[in-house]
Write a structure and sequence with these properties.
Layout: E1 3-8, H1 13-18, E2 37-44, E3 47-48, E4 51-52, E5 56-64, E6 69-75, E7 86-92, E8 97-106, E9 112-120, E10 133-134, E11 140-146, E12 152-159, H2 160-163, E13 166-170, E14 175-185, E15 192-201, H3 202-207, E16 213-222, E17 227-233, E18 245-254, E19 264-272, E20 277-279, E21 286-287, E22 292-296, E23 308-316, E24 321-330, E25 346-353, E26 356-361, E27 382-383, E28 395-397, E29 407-409, E30 414-417, E31 427-435, E32 448-454, E33 460-462, E34 468-472, E35 482-485, E36 494-495, E37 500-502, E38 516-525, E39 533-542, E40 554-561, E41 564-573, E42 596-605, E43 615-623, E44 631-633, E45 642-646, E46 661-662, E47 666-674, E48 679-688
Parallel strand pairs: 7-16, 17-28, 27-28, 30-40
Antiparallel strand pairs: 1-6, 2-5, 3-4, 6-8, 8-14, 9-13, 9-15, 10-14, 11-12, 11-14, 15-16, 17-18, 18-24, 19-23, 19-25, 20-24, 21-24, 22-23, 25-26, 29-31, 31-38, 32-36, 32-39, 33-38, 34-35, 34-38, 35-37, 39-40, 41-42, 42-48, 43-47, 44-48, 45-48, 46-47
């Protein structure tokens, strides 16, 4: 923000300073002039020896009076920029109020009258506005006049509508502070809205109407907390056991993925249990973030049992998450409304002030929920099947499982693969599905499915048609396992119910309780880069009736590309002595004519020792033309080429086990076999030409 100054003067800077008229160069100057004059002549009378003489008149002096009109309109909010005429990027809640401060100053030497107005809109470079505006009827404007000594002269507060065409009379060096408490309307999170304040000088309207109006543009961005609510329930409620207890966990996050999210203070969370449930005998009420939690009887049931919780004094900064937990059990005094579709919902509310209360529920049919008035239409949604809702502000609730289903996906596997594979050295990745529940799983279509998805554009890919499953019906090593094949459908899903027996396995009848299915699939590599990791995501898709909500559903297997690593080093042998102590390095060395250089090339099989990838016929070569005319390869017995297995990267070969040779073009040799984590090295020497 900066002062927007209009100035009218024909005085020189020196005279202007003497009269107290600002001479600082501000933006948006306007000038005009009028020049009334003062003419003055002095007279004198005198006598000589008592005789009156003729009256004497002096020369005439003339003062040309120059009127100086000047005024400024300054945007006063501290928005981080003192060089513009804007109050910008202030924050406001939906239908909230934001205060813009301005100062209008008469910095001229004439009394002036100013007409003030407010209007929606206005353009600020780089700021895009949305559908939100300001409600002038609900906006209040306080304008306070001060004299040149900063003493308050008067103050008045009116609505934005009444403020239109307000006239303010200011004497020289008087000013008026204008505070606009602007009420927004039609704005949701992320909306940006502008409000323009203008001041028109009566003096300049006469002298130069084109420069009579100054403008400040105010801008606010709408910020509001964005609640992502997740309501989950642990284990399974045994409807035949009144003492069976489940734990509800409610996580409420102020979703920082919304760029319009704001901190929230004094959030209220309410959870009323469905009919047929109540708080457990030992409810173990818990709320994080120093919030207060208490039990109540405001749930959906008609009984007198405690069946609700309320959390108050909950504060969440942007990105923070709170956790609320409590235990529930069967309320035997009342029936379940729908025992196969029991969903417990959570309601979050926050008073934003200005009569605005935001209500966000996990229930898509909630009559209280009003997030559409506060969030963009693309944000806030609800799912009630227990799956994750990753949308911004997305809420989810899990149905209560009334049977004993439980499915889990095991730990990821890590494998290594060559740079390029054939059908003989493809790698098998795997992941285990465990049925830890009490129901048979995967015998019905859509009940247990999985997908296998490699990374896009990866050179390590899944081999088409390679998926098999190994079924272990009882986790007993003494009993046989069975192999089945599964073919992906057009959606890329593998459905366990379509398993086809292989190698004499019996017909597929599903996973028995406490059984496992190992998913095996092959991956292949085509000119991949050594050291890169390729990820394959196996996703378990559980369907059917009473879908279990606990357990791992996504596993990422990693295939690391391994291969031959080659290191080249050199050592200075300045005396060309066969017994010299050598220090090899891959850094440059300083040598003189007549010095010798010993080169070492080390090959390393980077595969882990538990992998079967032994390299064969590893050809190591160093071409002579790289130092031709600069050095000569030494071929004496003291400096003969050597190629041998070595213990580590630092070691040098002792013999020429692999018969490396020197010819007119290169120094080379072939290691017949190099096992995982094994090294081989070749050395030879050159003498720098004199």
């Amino acid at each position: 923000m900066k002062p927007n100054l209009l100035n009218y003067s024909t005085l020189s800077i020196g005279i202007a300073a003497a009269l107290g008229v600002a001479g600082t160069a501000h933006a948006a100057k306007s000038t005009g002039e009028s020049t009334p004059t003062i003419e003055n002549v002095a007279t004198a009378t005198y006598s000589i020896d008592g005789v009156a003489q003729n009256a004497v008149e002096s020369n005439k002096v003339v003062v040309n009076i120059t009127q100086s009109g000047a005024f400024s309109l300054e945007a006063k909010n501290n928005d981080g920029n003192l060089t513009d005429d804007y109050n910008k990027t202030l924050t406001v809640t939906p239908k909230g109020r934001v205060t813009f401060n301005h100062t209008l100053t008469n910095s001229g030497n004439v009394e002036d009258t100013y007409t003030l107005n407010l209007a929606n809109g206005g353009t600020i470079p780089g700021v895009t506005t949305g559908a939100g505006t300001y409600d002038l009827a609900e906006t209040s404007v306080t304008y306070t006049i001060f004299n040149k000594d900063r003493t308050q002269v008067s103050t008045k507060t009116v609505s934005g509508t009444e403020f239109q065409n307000t006239k303010v009379v200011l004497k020289p060096n008087e000013y008026v502070d204008i505070a606009v408490a602007a009420k927004t309307k039609g704005n949701v999170g992320g909306s940006s809205q502008n409000l323009t304040l203008t001041a028109t000088s009566a003096y300049f309207t006469v002298e130069d109407v084109t420069k009579a109006t100054l403008t400040n543009i105010n801008n606010s961005t709408t910020k509001v907390p964005v609640f992502q609510i997740t309501n989950t329930v642990s284990n399974t409620l045994n409807l035949n056991n009144p003492s069976s207890v489940v734990t509800y966990t409610i996580k409420i996050k102020n979703d920082n993925r919304a760029d319009y999210a704001a901190d929230a203070t004094n959030i209220v969370v309410f959870d009323g249990l469905p009919a047929g449930l109540r708080l457990a005998d030992d409810p173990k009420l818990s709320a994080s973030n120093n919030a207060t939690i208490k039990a109540g009887s405001s749930g959906e049931g008609s009984g007198s049992a405690l069946d609700s919780i309320e959390v108050t004094l909950l504060n969440l900064k942007v990105g923070e998450e709170a956790t609320i937990t409590f235990n529930a059990q069967r309320d035997t005094s009342e029936p379940f409304k729908d025992p196969k579709n029991i969903v417990n919902h959570t309601l979050v509310s926050l008073n934003l002030g200005e009569g605005q209360i935001i209500y966000d529920s996990t229930d898509p049919n909630s009559t209280q929920q009003n997030t559409g008035e506060f969030y963009p239409t693309t944000d806030d949604s609800e799912v009630i099947n227990g799956t994750a809702n990753n949308a911004i502000g997305g809420d989810s609730a899990a149905p209560l499982t009334a049977n004993q289903r439980a499915i889990d996906l095991g730990l990821p596997s890590r494998k290594e693969i060559p740079v390029t594979t054939s059908t003989n050295n493809q790698v098998t990745q795997s992941v285990v599905i465990t049925n830890s529940g009490k129901e048979t799983e995967g015998d019905k279509p859509g009940e247990i499915k999985f997908t296998i998805a490699p990374e896009a554009n990866s050179k390590v890919t899944v081999v088409s048609g390679s998926v098999e499953i190994i079924y272990d019906p009882d986790n007993n090593p003494a009993t046989p396992n069975y192999t089945y094949t599964i073919t992906r459908d057009i959606n890329g899903d593998n459905d366990l119910s379509t398993a086809v027996p292989k190698n004499g396995a019996p017909a597929w009848t599903g996973m028995a309780p406490n059984s496992t299915v190992t998913i095996n699939y092959k991956v292949e590599s085509k000119e991949a880069v050594v050291g890169t990791e390729a990820k394959t995501t196996v996703t378990l898709v559980v369907g059917g009736v009473d879908v279990p909500t606990i357990g791992e559903r996504v596993v990422t297997n990693i295939t690391t590309v391994k291969g031959l690593k080659l290191f080249k080093e050199q050592a200075l042998n300045d005396s060309c002595s066969a017994t010299a102590t050598l220090s090899f390095t891959d850094a440059p060395v300083a040598a003189k004519p007549g010095n010798c250089i010993v080169y070492k090339i080390t090959a390393f099989n980077d595969f882990s020792v538990d992998n079967p990838f032994t390299f064969s016929n590893v050809a190591i070569a160093d071409t002579i033309d790289r130092f031709k005319n600069k050095a000569q390869v030494l071929t004496t017995s003291d400096f003969a080429v050597k190629l041998d297995d070595v213990a580590n990267k630092q070691a040098s070969p002792n013999t020429n086990k692999y018969n490396a040779t020197i010819n007119a073009t290169q120094v080379s040799g072939t290691v017949t076999s190099l096992a995982p984590q094994k090294y081989a090295a070749m050395t030879f020497a050159v003498k720098i030409n004199e």
